[in-house]
Write a structure and sequence with these properties.
The protein is of the alpha/beta class. Helix content is 28%, strand content 24%. The strands form six sheets. The protein has a nine-stranded mixed beta sheet, with helices on both faces. Strands 4-3-2-7-6-5 form a six-stranded antiparallel beta sheet, with helices on one face. The protein has a five-stranded mixed beta sheet with strand order 20-22-21-23-24, sandwiched between helices.
Amino acid sequence: MSGRQIMDDLELLLGVMPPSIRQAIEAGPDGEALVEIVLDLGRAPEARFAERGVELAGGAVTRQDIAYVVDRVGDFGKDNRAGIERTLHRISALRNRRGDVIGLTCRIGRAVYGTVDILRDVVEAGRSILLLGRPGVGKTTLLREAARVLADDLSKRVIVVDTSNEIAGDGDIPHPGIGRARRMQVPSPELQHAVMIEAVENHMPQVIVIDEIGTAAEAMAARTIAERGVQLIATAHGNTLENLLQNPTLSDLVGGIQAVTLSDEEARRRGTQKTVLERKAPPTFGVLIEIQDKDRLAVHHDVAEVVDRLLREAPARPELRTRTAAGGVEIQPSAPLPPAPAGLGDRRPKPGPGAQARLPAPAPPPAAAGGTDARWPGLPEPPRSAAFPGRPARKTVRIHPYAVSKAKLERAIRKFRAPALIVEDLDGADLVLTLKAQERRQPRRLRDAQARGIPVAIVKSNTIVQIENTLRAALDLPEPRDLAAADEAALEEVEAAIDEVLDLGEPVELSPRNTYLRRLQHQVVERYGLASESKGEGHYRRLVIYPA
């Protein structure tokens, strides 16, 4: 391909082969396409290419042939891998029960300069990137090139955690394919996670490059590194994002999955069963790349959004990138994502018990007179309501109040019947509400919110009027309708009853109400983490609140 240079040091690998095998390979016409040389005791040696294998002339492999190779390569580690110093070739051993080497797989390692061009803009953006793909498709080659570009062209501090010496080669001096990036070798595969943490704590990297994250300890170490603000570029076992989600060990890399039991009311609203799957946490890697073949990639630029959609059984629409015959890159942008299946609602992870306040569901707002959306800039665009064409279906917005009175904010949400919940931290928050004085000081919490791209709404002062005005502007809420006397009475009664249950620890029975008012009361009770049920028949049906 134009613009790509290949360094394979093939002559150094052939130099450790028995003479008869070396001559058979050199006589072949397509040495540049060679992938592996396989030597198994008692069988003919085999040269493997991408799509086929060819038996080499010269008779069956003997113990002397295997010993010839073993004596000329580096020491085999606990993972039964060795190499040739300052090359990228990998020699893997097969052993019998006594530990004797009876087979060798000699993998040709190539540094392909220019291969990262298809992803250069993604690599330089500074977000953590996870590469997926079948063995031999070029994941390690991309890692090596990414390390070189970041270290040499962008002058970043790059550490390569090299477990099997595949990225930077065998020996104490790294292969020039990683440029000025530094390399940390791993004594044995089970210590990879410890070396990952050591790299962050001891060497102050801006970027860490890792090959083959495969255990829960390594996934946890990757999350710890990402949370410290270090860019991660890594590979993992699996071909697609869906494969990774189904892997209980590695699904945490893309946020993990948890089963959540919904209330009856919420299940009816979503139109789902009571138990649904939701993303458990923010993903460790913001970008995921599926390497379909050496010249064709699928790029998921927002892993969190894609995982949420997959859990809703909605299609993922990645961006497709193809390297052309002329060496250029053809990009097919991701297709616009269709609306999620009706009634599923927002399935992003929710904080645990006590971390959010659940408020009464809003009454449908009146249709807007104009066609513009005056919601707070940066908040996600709501889907259109199927029941009211042209009217946005209200999305539940999670608000994190910083130095703003939660009690007054709850009161404002209740007054407007706003589609909003209060959350205790930034994880899962859609909006931060803070005071003007705090915004001037720029404390760490607000800096973190801005770094995550979470919109920040400013309240002039901690008064109910100012909080209401800011909430209305942020969520584009209509003017509040006057609550009917029955609504006010029902809500006041349930609040008083909740106080009594919390103080005395005994059940409290409310006055009979109609279905609509009882539903509001149930939702207020649920907000406080208490249990409630309706009793009685007809006009005498009423709510009973029980202590937790």
